[in-house]
């Protein structure tokens, strides 16, 4: 993965990581508030269900006791027993004796005037019958829940089933709804018919509807549905309260993540990383500026000049990024890439034109790199070239320490490589190294070529090169006048815009072909 993609990835992760804790804290606050709210509602629903079971069980107990009576129905003893049962059982309001579903007597009157009971809505596993009767049922004037055995029925006020207090922080309502009839038997708050229908048709135990949360559970023995509900306003209030706890934590966590990721991003965007990524992505390409013999105008080779291709297609010149590579310690990697590109670009061309050469700029630090001669040797052997076709250019800084540079340069010359002194006269001031070093060519810097007819130093440089038996290459030739002056003073080779700018490999090969044909 390239550094650019890594930066994009880290930036995306940074945005995600900053937003995630905030979003998560909001979600957690809402989730915790909702869980607390629903747990309170569920707990209360269980209490109501336990209350319903307690009332039903008490009715069953009363019926079992009534069925033990062996005397005459509706006799004084029978009526006494029914009254005792009604008084001793808290939830039993009245006891009736039935004969073929018709009440004959009750704990409240010897001769009952109650209507004939309809068929029960449900019969439980123990054989107990259950009726859910409301005031609209023919023959009955009030809502009631009845539980019956073979001959007896106990009547319970529906409100007894929902007489449960909520001790929570917010009010919770209760309702009993007939499962088959859809009638509201008892409720602490009125229910709209549309809401009753939604409750009956609900497939889930918990749901939100309107501005309330609802919990629905069946009571099979009574054929009723137990409904509890509470307004969502306390949920929203609790959410806001919890948000004041979770949101600062989320923001703090986001800041911590952002701090660490920004440090990583800063490192990825450092000059060292950018330069290293450019080398790894092979964004450093090589252009070639022709070197010509000044007397004939015929091309003899080229200088390899590195360019850094940017994402927008523009090219950075070496004087911009070479110092960066030097400062970040990446010159060995950069030199290796340039050498590989030169052979990849020009290997076949050099093989076909053995009289041509390419000069490659190397850094003083490259002289300490033991892999440099090996790398050159491998590529020369691969392309079956002569070592003389690869020249090496060093600036004067490369000769600042003769003890280090002399043996390395001697070894490179022994391999067959010509050694150029690049930008002569602009760097290291001592000239004594010229006597100690064995080099081949001196390159006259463009600053000495500009307006050569007015320069007093340039003739001395030329005479010194002649005295040391060094060939010369003049850089930056741009005018006919400069060319004539250099020819008159015995400079053998030159390069510059007068001949050609630095060219991409295909353009250079085409230019050279035209140049040789014209010559």
From TrEMBL:
Keywords (A to Z) from UniProt: c-di-GMP, Cell membrane, Hydrolase, Membrane, Transmembrane, Transmembrane helix
GO molecular function: cyclic-guanylate-specific phosphodiesterase activity
One GO cellular component term: plasma membrane
Enzyme Commission code(s) on record: 3.1.4.52
Cell membrane as UniProt keyword: yes
CDD domains found in the cross-reference section: EAL
Entry-linked Pfam families: CSS-motif (PF12792), EAL (PF00563)
Segments crossing the lipid bilayer: 243-265
Lineage top rank: taxon: Bacteria
Membrane topology: Multi-pass membrane protein
Main location: membrane
SUPFAM superfamilies in alphabetical order: EAL domain-like
UniProt domain EAL: residue ranges: 268-516
Cell compartments where the protein resides: Cell membrane
InterPro entries, per database record: CSS-motif_dom, Cyclic-di-GMP_PDE-like, EAL_dom, EAL_sf
Gene3D superfamilies hit by this protein: EAL domain (3.20.20.450)
Catalytic activity: 3',3'-c-di-GMP + H2O = 5'-phosphoguanylyl(3'->5')guanosine + H(+)
Keyword Cell membrane: yes
Protein name: cyclic-guanylate-specific phosphodiesterase
Source species taxonomy: Bacteria, Pseudomonadati, Pseudomonadota, Gammaproteobacteria, Enterobacterales
Gene it is expressed from: yjcC_1
